Fold each of these.
Amino acid sequence: MDENSQNRSLTIALAGNPNAGKTTLFNALTGLKQKVANYPGVTVERKEGPWTVADTEVKLIDLPGLYSLDATSLDEQIASEIISGKRDDLGQLDAVIAIVDATNLERNLYLVTQILELGVPTVIALTMIDVFERELHEIDIDKLSTLLNTPIVPVNAKTGRGSDELAAAVEKVIGTHREPPPIAESESTENGKIFARYKFIAHVVQETVKHNDESRHRVSEKIDRVLTHKFFGLVILVGILLLVFQTIFSWSSLPMDLLEHGFGGLADAAKSLLPEGILADMVADGVIAGVGGVVIFLPQILLLFFFISLLEDSGYMARAAFLLDKLMSGVGLHGKAFLPLFSSFACAIPGIMATRTIENRRDRFATIMIAPFMSCSARLPVYTLMIATFFAGQTVFGFVSLGAVLMLAMYTLGIVVAIMAAFVLKRTILKAPPPPFLMELPPYRVPNLRAVFQNMITRAWLFLKRAGTVILAISIVLWALMYFPRSSSEAVTPPAATSVGAVETPEGVTLTAESEQLKNSYAGKLGHAIEPVISPLGFDWKIGVALIASFAAREVLVSTLSIIYNVGKDENEESETLIQAVREAKRDDGRPSWTPLTALTLMVFFVLAMQCMSTLAIVRRETNSWTWPLFMLAYMTILAYLAAFATYQIGKLLGFE
Amino acid sequence: MMTLTELPIGQNALVSSVDNKNAVTKRLMEMGVVPGVSVEVIKAAPFGDPIEIRVRGYSLAMRRNEADAVRVSF
C-alpha cells in the first residue's frame, strides 16, 4: 500500500456475473452494516458496506451483476462506469474484486479479461469451488493465476471462508500499477475483440482445468425435465403462484390485525396524551391513521419479498420467464416482465421496482405502465365491502358463490385490460422491435436464507422510509382537506354534562358533528363539485368524497365511508354496522345511495383507476420524469371512468337500478 | 449449413458463424456463442419458443429470432 492511499478511505468494488455468488460474498464480508442508496440521477441501487483490509476500514461496493463492460441494461451501465473509473461520485477504484464462479469458468472469465484490459488492480475471488470439485473436476489455481497474471483466492461465499486471504491479497495489489495484458488490443472490430478474448480464455481453461467425468452431473437439467416440461411445467408454475398468494394472504392476516389494533391504540393514546385540539386531531386522525393504513401492508410486502427472493435465489424465476416468454411476447412484452406483474398482485410498488431487470427502456416502461392494473391487496378491502354489502349469500347456478365469481371477475378484468393496454402501448408511444431475449438459466441452488432475509429487511426498510416521508405528507394534506374549514362543530357538540341525552349517546353526537364537518370541509365541497361528473356513474357527492380521498390510497375508501356514514373509525370492511349503513344510506333526495349496480360500478372503477399516490411517486422515481406518472394517472383514470360509465348505463338499460 | 433454430434437440454442433443481424449479435458473442464453440439444443419452451441451449457448460435461453443468427455445422 503506498502513502497516498492511506490518507483517504479506500474504495473497493465487487464485480461479477449475475448468479456468481457476488451478493452472498458481499453479505459475508460486510455483515449487517450495509447501506442501500441510489446512484445520483438514476434508480440503480448502490449497496456499500465496511470491510477491513490491513486493519483499515475500507468502503466495499457491491456492483450490479454484469456479463460484459459493454452494457445493455442500466444496471450494467452503472457498474461498467464505476469499474472504468468514469463516475465522478466515486472516481478511480483502489481495487476490483472479480468474482468468478468455478462451475461456469469460461463465461465468467470474459468479464475478467475486460477488467484486466483496463489495468485496474484486481484480485479474483473464486467461488463454488466445492461444487466444482464435487462434480469431479480439477483446477490448477496457481497456474490459472500465473496465466492471468492476477492473484486468485478461493472463497466460500456462504461461510465467508477465505475472506482473510482475500483481504491480504487485496492489500498487496492496492497502489500497484499493472500493464493490461495484450489479449484483444490487436483487433479492430468489436466482434473481433470478443472472439480474441474467448480464444484466450479457451487456451487458459484448457491449460488449467481437467474434467475427470465427461458425463457431468447435470442435476439442474434433470430437475428441468419436470419444471420446464411443456405441460407439467405450466401446471406447476400455476400451482406455485396460487400457493404463494394463498400463503401471503393467510400468514399475513394475524400480523395485519395486530398492526391495525396497534395503530388504533396508538391513535387513542395520542388523543388522550396530547391536549385536545388541532394537534391531537392531526396526529391521531392524520399522521397515525394515514401512515398506519399503509404500514399494515408491511407483513404482506415482507412475505411477498420473502417468496420472490426464495424463487429468485433458487433459480426458478428464470424458468418462469422461460415458460411464459411466448405468451408475454404476444403482446410485445419481455418474459422478464412476468415477475414485476406477478408481484403487482400484492402491491404495484415492489412490482415496478422489479422492472429494473428488463434491459430495454421501452419494454420496461410498458411493463411499468400496466403493472397497476393487477388487482393489488389495497383493492381487497373495497371489493370485500361491496360484495359483503350487496352480494353476500347469493349463488350462481345454485352452488357457486356470487361473491367469489365477482372477485374472480375483477382480477380477470384487470389482467385483460393490462394485456390490451400493453398491446396498444407497444404499437404506439412505446413502439419498438420485439425485445431480444437472451437469458441465462442458472443452475438450481438451495436458497441462502441469510441472503433472503437480508433482502427482506432491506426492502422493508425502504418501504417504511417511504411511509415515513411521502405517505406521511399526503396523509396530513388529506386530513387537512377534511378538517378545514372548521364548521361550528364545537357548537354542535354539546358540553358533555349539560344534557342527559348527550351523556347517554356522546358518541352519536360527536359523529353527527363529524359528518356535518365533512360536508362543509374542502373535501366535502370537492365532493359536491364533482357530483355532475360522477352522477352518470350512479354516485352521489358522499361517494364522491370517498372517491377523492381514495386517490391517495384505495383502501382509504373504507375508512372515509365510515366517517361519512357516522359509523366510527374502528370499523373495517366486514363490520356489520358499516354494511348496514351503506345499505341504508340515502341521497339528498331520499333515494338510496347504493344499489347492487352502484356497487358493481364502483368495483369496476377501482379495478382500473390509478388511485395510489405511492405508486405515482415510485413511477416518477423509476422513469425519472413527471410525464410518465401523469400519463399513467390520466389514461388509467379515463379508462376507469369509461368502463364504470358503461357498466352503470348498460346495467340501467338492462333494467337494474 | 443450418441455423441453431433448425438444430434437432439433443444434437451437438459447432458454431460456424454469428450473423451481424441485430443488436443481440454482440450480446450472443459476449455470452460465449462465438465461432468454433460447441453448442447443444436442450429443449424448447411450452409454446415452441424460446429455446434452451447449452454452451460453455451453462444453460442459455434465447428466442428463435435470436437463434436464427447463429449458423452451425457438424
Amino acid sequence: MLTIKEGQRGCYNINMGKDKNNKVIVEFKDVVKKYGEGDAVQYANNHVDFTINEGEFVVILGQSGAGKSTVLNMLGGMDVPTSGTVVVDGQTVSSMNDNQLSEYRAKTIGFIFQFYNLLPSLTAYENVALTKTIVKNAQDPGKMLEAVGLANDKHKFPSQMSGGEQQRVSIARALAKNPSVILGDEPTGALDSETGVIVLELLQKMCREEHKTVILVTHNADIARCADKIIRMKNGKVREIKINDNPVPVREVEW
Amino acid sequence: MLFKKMLREMGKNFGQFISILILAFLAVSLFACMKASNISAYNKRDDLYKATNNANGFIYGENFTEDALTAIRKLDDVKDAERRLHVTANAVENDQAQLEVYLLNENIVSKPFLKKGDDFDLNRTDSVWISEGFANEWGLKIGDNFSFNYNGVIVTKKIAGLVVSAEYQYLKADKDLDIVIKNISIVYMPYAGFPVKDFVKVLINNGDLTIDDAIKYSDEVREKVEKLEAFGFSRDQITKEDLCKAVDNIEEETILEFLPYTEIVFTTDNTDVKGMEKEISDALNGDFAVFCDRDDLPGMKVMTDELAQHDQFAVSFPVVFIAIALLIIMTTMNRMIAKQRTQIGTMRALGVKKRKIVLHYLSYSFIVSLVGSVLGLFIGTYVFGEAIAKIFREWYIIPGWTVEMDYTMYLVCVIVVLACVLATYLSCRKVMNIHPAESLRPAPPKSGKRTLFEKLPFWDKLSFNTQYNLRDISRGKLRAFMGVIGTAAGMVMMVSALASITTIQNVSDWTLNRIQNYKSEIDFESGISIEKAESIRSEYGGELVQAAAVEIAAKKDAVASEKMSTTLMVTEGRDFYRLTDINEEPASLPPGTVAITMKQADKLGLKAGDKVYWHLYEKNTWYEAEIGLINRHPNLTGITMLRADYEKTGENYTPSVLYTDNDMSDYVKKEGDGVLAVHDDADIRESFDVMMSMIYAMLAVFVIFAAVLPIVVLYNCGNLSFNERVQEFATLKVMGLSTKRIRRLLALQNLWLSLIGIILGAPLGTVVLQYMFDSNGDSMDYPVGAGLLVYLASAAFVLLISVLVSFMFNRRIKHLDMVEILKGIE
C-alpha cells in the first residue's frame, strides 16, 4: 500500500499506466429529471445518456445549474429520475425502494462531499470506523487513515483538523467501505489548490492502483485534464463526452 | 414583511412552537384552575362571614349565665357576643341523620344564612331552619314538618327556612368517613321553642333526674322537702310521677334553666383571637372549658386547610411546568436563532437596525407564549377551574362559589411571557454581539472534544450507537437535561396517580381488617346510661367504646396555642376495636397508659413514656396520663385509653358505640332501646368506594398530564436533537445507514433519557403523593404505599410514550432529503 507523506509529495510519481477495462459499470439511459409541471417545468437532466467503464477516472464538468450534481445524486441513490434508467454495477438504481437504496449506498458507493460531512462528535478514526457498522467487510480504519497520510492524526476531532485533512478523512471513510464507485461532489471546492492537489492525487491513485471507478463533479475545467473521461454538461444535457487518452498527473495541473 | 417571515418560520418549526404554546398553556392553566376556584371561595366565604356576622371566638362551658355573657360583651376587643345551646340530635324520619341543633334566644352573631323561606325569627317557636343541602337530599320543603329526637324527646316543628351555616362549610356526620350531605344537617330554632318540660320529664323517667338532683338544683325544692321530712315524709315517697307533675307547675322561664347555655360566641377585630384567652378567662373567672377560634373548628378549619392546599398546589405544580417550558423555550430559541445566524447577518448587512431584528425575534416567543398563556388563563379559569369548583361545591358549602380571576393570574401570565421573551432575548443577544461580517458566515462547527464518558474503561467496547449518543448528550447537555426532567415529571405523576390507588387500598385493608375486628357497629343514642349500654352488650356481645371530644397538651397549664383539640376513645380492651402501631400492625395498649396517634405525638413532641394532659371538651378538669403506645389511625386522631383507667379519673363512662361480631342485619328498632343506628362494614366499604371514585377521577387527570408532559418534552428534545443532527443523519444515510438504523440511533437517546427520568422520578412520585395527602392537615394519616407493580406500570407507560415519540420521527427520517440537506452545508 502506498503512503503519501507530506515530505514525499513533491517527489511522488503516480503510475499513469492504467488497466484498460471495458466493463461498463455505470449506465445512464435517457435519464430525465424534471421539477414542476406545465409552463413551470424545469429540467435538471434532459435525456442524459452516458456510460462509464470500471476503473475510469471521470470528471463531470459544467457550470452552475448544468445538471451535474443531479447526475451525481442519482448515481448516489439520493435522488430518483423522472424517467430513464440508471444502472450501476449491474443494479438498476432508478427502480430501487428505500431499503434497497440504503443497501446500495452502503455497498456500492463511496461518497466524498465538498464540505467533508464528517461527524463532529467522532474522531478521525471513529469517522472511518463508522463504516464497520454499515458494511460487514469494511476495511481497517487505521490502515485507511494510514493510506491517506493521517496515521498520526487519527484521534483528532474534525474541528482540530485542516480542510484538507478533513477531506482526506472523508476519502478514507469512503474507501473503507470498499465500494465499486467513488463519487465526489466538488471534493476540492472548499480547499486551497495545494491541498486540492493532495486530495486529487489520492483519488487518482485509488483509481489507478485500487481499480476504483472515481466520478467527480466539478466546475473546474483544469481538473478535467487529469481524467480518463470528461462528460461536459450544459442546461441539463450532455454536450460532450471526451476520452482523454493522455490524462496529466495531478501535480501538473494548476488552478 | 418580517411578520410574514415570522409566520412562515413558525409554520416550518411548528412542532417546537406548538410545544412552547402547550407548555405556556399548561403552566398558566394549571395555576389558573387551582387559583380561580380558590379566589372565588375566599371572596364568597368573606361575603358569607360578613352576611352572617360569623363569630371569630368560641367559648364552651357547662353553663353560661347572663352575667358571663355581659362580662364577655364588656371586653374591649369584643364587638358582639351571644349565648347559645348546641346539642346533637337525630332526625326521626331521615335515617337517623345527625343534627347539630342550635337553640338561640338572640340572633346577632353567627346568624343562619338564608337560602330559601323566611328569615330566622325568635318568635316563631313552632319553626326550625335546616340546612339547604340536607333538605334537598331528602326532598324537604318549606312548610313541611320536621322531627328530631334529642335524648328521647321527639321535637316536631315546621320548616320555615333553608339555610347555610358559615360555621359549617365542611359538614360531615360523625359516622361517615367522608362528606355525605344527606347524613347531617344544622338546625336552628328559637330557644323558647324547645319543649323543655317534656325533656325534663324524660330525664326524670330515665332516672337521670331525681329528687336529690332537684334539691341540689333548687333552694325552693330543698326547703319544701326539708319541711316535708320534718313532718315524717321520706324522699323516697316522692315518685317520678310526682316529680313530673311538679314540672308541669314550674314556670316556662324557670324550666328553661334545665337547658343551659353551653356556648358563647363573639366577634372581634383582634386578629390574634387566641391571644384573648387570658382576658376571657379573667372575665369568666376561669369558668369555661374550651376557648378556640375559627381554625380549631373542623367546619371552618377543613375548608381553610383545603384552600391552603390548593394555594400550595397552584404554586408548586405550575412552577414545574413553567420551569420546563422555560427550558424548552431557551433551547428552542437558542437553536432557532443559531440557525438564523446568516439571515441575521444579511439583515444587518442590509442595514436593518439591531433593535428591529431583536424585536422581530422577540415577537416569536412573545406571540406564542402570549397565545398559550391567554388560552391557559381563560380555559384554565372557566373550564378546568369551574370543573374543580364544581367538584368541591359537592363537598363544601359556600353560597355563590364559582370561579374568579385576580391579579396573581395575570401576573403568572406576564411572568410566563416575560420569561419566554427574556430567554429569547438572551439567545438573540449572543448572535447580535457578533460582527455582521462574521455572522454572514456560518458558525464554526462545534469543536469535538473528549467527553467524560470516554474515560470509561470499557469505552472502546461500546457500540457505535452508544458512543455516538453519549457524545451527543455531552454536546447537548441542556437538551438532555430537559428530556430527563420532562420524563421524570411524567413518571412522578404516573407513580403518584397509581400509588394513590394502592394507598387507598392499603388504608381500606388497614381499616377493615386490622383496626376493625367486628362485623357490626351499634351507635347509641347520646346520653345512654351505662346500664342500658351494658345490657345491649350482653345481648349481642362485643366491646363498648366511648368517643369524646377532648383537648390535649404536652404540659400542665398549657396556653391555647399549645393545646390540641382532638378525640378520646375509651375502649374495653376486648380486641374488637384495635389499635395499630406505627407499622400499622395491631398492638395492645398497656393498662395504666394511653395511646396517642403518631402525628399528634410528633406535633406535641411526645414519645412513649412521656406524660400527656387532657380534659373533656365540656369540662375544665385536666388529667395526666402516661403514653404507653404511639399508634396510627388513618382518620381518627387523639388519645385512646382503657375503660378501667378512664373510670379511675372519676368521669362517667358513657359509651357511644358497641362493636360486635353479631350479625345485625335483622335488627328492628324498638322504641326506647337506646340504639340510634346499626351499621355493618358495607357502609365503611361504601365510603372507601366513594373515595376510590374520586381517586380514579384524579387518576384520569394525572394520566393526561403524565402523558402530555413527556410527549411535549421528549418530542421537543427529539426535534431539537433531530434538527441539530439532521446533516449528520443525511450523511449517514448517504453512507448507507438505513432509515431503521437511524431511527434506532435517535430512539436510543430518547430511551436513555427516559430511563434516567424514570429512575429519578420514581421515588419522587411517592414523596409528592405523601405531600399531597399530608397537606390535608393532621387529621389524616395516609401512609403512601407503592408496590413494584406501580413502578413497573408507570415506567412502562412513560417508556411507551418515549417509544411513540421516537416513532413520530420515523417519517421524517424516511423522507430525509439528503440532497437538500447536504446542499445546505456551507
